[in-house]
Amino acid sequence: MKNRFNTVLLTLALLLPSLPALAMTWPQDITASEGTITVYQPQPESLEGNTLKSRAAFSIDLASGGDPIFGAMWFTARLDTDRDSDTAIIRDLVVDHVQWPDSKDAEEQRFTTVVEGAMPQAGFEISMERLTASLAAAETEAKSLQNLKNDPPKIVFRQDLAVLLPYDGKPRFSDIDNSPYERALNAPFAVIHKKRSDDYFLTSGDFWYAARDPLGPWTPDSNPPSDLVSMVPKPSGDDPKPASPPEIVTATEPTELVVTAGAPDWESLPNGQVLYVKNTETAWLRDLASGNMYLMLSGRWYRSKAEDGPWTFVPADELPAGFQDIPPASDIGGLRTSVAGTPEAEDAMRDQAIPQTAAIKRSDASLTVTYDGKPKFEKIKGTDVAYAVNTGAQVLEIDKRYYAVDNGVWYTSAEATGPWVVADSIPDDKIAEIPPSSPVYNTTYVHVYDSTPEVVYVGYTPGYMWSFPYYGVPVYGTGWYYPPYWGGAYYPRPPTWGFNVGYNPWTGWSFGLSWSNGFFNFGMSWGGGYPGPYRPWGCCGGWYGGGYHGGYHGGGNVIINTGDINIGNNINIGNRTNISNRIGNDTRLNNLSKQNNLYNRPENRARKADPAVVRRDLQNARPAQGKLNNVYADRSGAVTRPNGDQWQVREDGQWKDAADRVSPDTRDQVANAGQQARDRAAQATPEQRQQAQNSARQAQERATQAAQNRSAANRASGSYNLNTRDLNRDYSARQRGRSMERSRPMPRGGNFGGRRR
């Protein structure tokens, strides 16, 4: 530990000339009336919606010359995020409090006025990696959700190449115009039936299969009907195909397929406590101490003694201790994100709290909702909310008014059929009551933050994309099965199971169907266009963009899944057996990534307000030249920096050691004193309330005065109230964020659920 800080800082200084420009973004400078204000990387204290409360160390270089004057400030700001560029803008800063451990009392008011005047006009850019890591010290608590369903799906094992063909319930077919064929509506692949026969066909474009029943068994077919072959285009791309067609495994209930290349090949981790199967895409581990096997499916862990079960759910914070020791750079290093308590899992949990935001132009945002007949609504049990069942959109009825979510934006209307306008307020309390058992549960993660006559500020957190914090890790899907709507149209609902979902801290959630899923295209189409997108499977259509618009209405030509997200398209996996070799740069998985900004999709860009217009009054901060990002604001108001394994404080223009001067946090004492009095006021009778409120105000004033007196005494005596535990955590978070920022392009080592792009 000795000289830890000095060693790190010296190493950083030596590396500075070779680091990417992005790593040099902090500290940042803005121009003020009396000189230049240098703001060091903020230390967040809370994040609610897009409202960030933080503190930061800063310094002023006066135009008149002299040494820089250091201070600490607390501020409230708005956060604009863009996961496509992995950046956030901190804007609309309101300075709540300023402390000046490095100035004379007579100057403090003047300098405070300078800072308070400059900050609201400033905009600071920060990478999402730095923001996420810095939230480690924030006063936020990620809670596990209630009522997610964790019953395991049916788990099928195969030791040869195989593909899962999941039907959304019993197979249903519809005619292909001008042909003797019909095709399955509720399957992600091209399943075709020759009418008035028992002949069924399945194709990947390269391989053909035949069966006497849509549920199989499916056998390779080297001589499919020529008229049918002519309707189906060859897959695009030059990716190789396996020597023989993979087996087709059909399912009509929630199912996961676990495929190995031959018998499971168990490999030991260096800690000698955990084995893993290295010739599969599924996370399949064994704890040697207990002999239990563990599978990770859609971010959830299941345990069993044998392959044939029974499999039981295990919370991620109850996994064997050896799982925490999985080496980050190993073949399964990506699994650390799904092991509660690891730094990777904690980063992922903090990421769940950061919204993707946008400013939406009222004039350019529109919505059309199509129903299968007259709008039909179903009440959500235990709430005052009903949702439309016969549409691909997500439409809610609340207090005789209608609200719809489309690609992360709320709309409202007096009628279920419209006209729809962008909503600048929604009944949050009633929407929040929607339970996970409802297929519109994800709408509870879309928010309206603010509005002007021209724009509405909106945002969504990963729950809208069906990614939830659960027992210290992210999981995918609610676990509930949502039956589809069948009528004159077919509207599927979002699934949790059947798509081999895995998480990667760099790219988010990714999807497949099995080890050989690359040989089947979700995005296959044939026979020309179809009026309106057809989305035969919830995960592959527009659901994740805020609703599966369209649906199948019968008739017309065929387009199989032309949804917003085509999953599993042209994945080059082949017959390689080692996961670290098999999953590499040539694997192109479309994913519902945390970097996938719905607001930036081509079809959604027109409704976004130009950031340059929205932020036209902001004075963009610029990187401070020649200054290390090594100054911090302690909670007590001291300005600090690391020095060896100790901390120094700024006093009278000098840095002084502050070892062995740790006492309770004065700022927390101030807040607690006021809060206790306010709590007493809340419990008082109406007659006592005014008196209690006066007591609360007086207690707050006394605590504040005591803090100010103590601050003055600290400056005179050099005795600071440093909370070194928090400072050490802030230091570690800042270094971790910087490291994550530098390693953004590619994870260090493969992982099962975290397939690299």
From TrEMBL:
<protein>
    <submittedName>
        <fullName>Carbohydrate-binding family V/XII</fullName>
    </submittedName>
</protein>
<feature type="signal peptide">
    <location>
        <begin position="1"/>
        <end position="23"/>
    </location>
</feature>
<feature type="compositionally biased region" description="Basic and acidic residues">
    <location>
        <begin position="602"/>
        <end position="611"/>
    </location>
</feature>
<feature type="compositionally biased region" description="Basic and acidic residues">
    <location>
        <begin position="726"/>
        <end position="744"/>
    </location>
</feature>
<feature type="region of interest" description="Disordered">
    <location>
        <begin position="591"/>
        <end position="611"/>
    </location>
</feature>
<keyword id="KW-0732">Signal</keyword>
<feature type="compositionally biased region" description="Basic and acidic residues">
    <location>
        <begin position="652"/>
        <end position="668"/>
    </location>
</feature>
<feature type="region of interest" description="Disordered">
    <location>
        <begin position="652"/>
        <end position="757"/>
    </location>
</feature>
<feature type="compositionally biased region" description="Low complexity">
    <location>
        <begin position="671"/>
        <end position="717"/>
    </location>
</feature>
<feature type="region of interest" description="Disordered">
    <location>
        <begin position="219"/>
        <end position="248"/>
    </location>
</feature>
